[in-house]
Amino acid sequence: MKRAPALLLGLALTALPGCSLLQAPPELSPRVELRGAGASFPAPLYQRWFTHLMVRQGLNLDYRAVGSLEGERQLAAGLVDFAGTDRRPDQLPWLAIPMTAGAIAVAYNHPGCRLTLNREELRGIFAGVITDYSQLGCRPLPIQVVVRSSGSGTTANLLRYLQVPEQGWHGPSALLAGGNDAMATLLAQRQGAIGYLETVFLVGRHRLQAAALENGVGGSVLPVPDQVKRALSQWPETREGYPLVSPSWVLLPKTGLGQKAVVLQRALRYGLSPAGQEQVQTLGYAPLPRHLQEQAQGLIEEITP
Questions:
Q1: Cβ atoms of 210 and 197 closer than 8 Å
Q2: What gap in Å lies between CA 12 and CA 69, rounded to an integer?
């Protein structure tokens, strides 16, 4: 499996006077190190949160963007203290705390072409049945499909939307991208390319457009903020709004964290605080709907040493 570029976030645990929200308890070790790995989608947001916490109070934290499945594997092997995943954690043995959310865009590089796609057309594109933009009503240009390498939570969400199995869903000529940022780079470099990525990675990629997709009530919707928010308010049963949306979760063991449990609680509480959620929107992520925020806050209280 290809690895996305690592995000190495060093933070030192030193109390800051006058900051009660972030004040460490006196018995906390002066250097508590935490290691994390997983989904590339939330990595820029986690970097922003952890940088803020570095200024306020020390926390040595290393988060590597390696993909959702690989992060889960490393957590199961005891190689990291927590993981990030975009895959639905219904059957996973850890605490799964939703921390942010976003939309997955079907993005393409064909200036002047505006795509509106239903599920059948999108399945045909990835399977190699539809091979030219002229088949979709645009100026002729060969289609180059780009997909994520194995273990991607973004892919898992796309396949759920397409209602297709993981095996054989794309043709053999598809190019592989190791993460959201790598996907954006490949799409921007190749005219005619089409793939999928979290919308926060479209920022600044002026050659790329997002297709309007068919939702559960037969509408064709672009991944614009109000339609993403509308869909997330109904999650997990999304019918109205933009159909390809998902939360992103932090996974951690239910017990056995020792002093790290206190540090994780404080970091996650900050992420859900008004200040943390303000940074969510600044970076282009979608704020968690109220029902997921309440769920997350309850789960944070279940973290035990």
A1: no
A2: 29
pTM: 0.88
Query: Is residue 130 exposed (0-12), middle (13-18) or buried (19+ Cβ within 10 Å)?
Result: buried
Angle at 285 between CA 249 and CA 230, to 5 degrees: 90
Mean pLDDT is lowest, of 11-25, 186-200, 224-238, 253-267, for 11-25
* Domains of the chain (ranges, CATH numbers): 33-101+248-300 (3.40.190.10), 103-245 (3.40.190.10)
**In the numeric block, which tokens belong to residue 224?**
């614009």
pLDDT at 264 over 80: yes
Task: Say yes or no to pLDDT of 90 above 60.
Answer: yes
Distance CA 75, CA 200 (A): 26
pLDDT band at 150, cuts 50/70/90?
A: confident
Beta carbons within 10 angstroms of residue 149's beta carbon: 18
- Residue 157's DSSP bridge partners are none
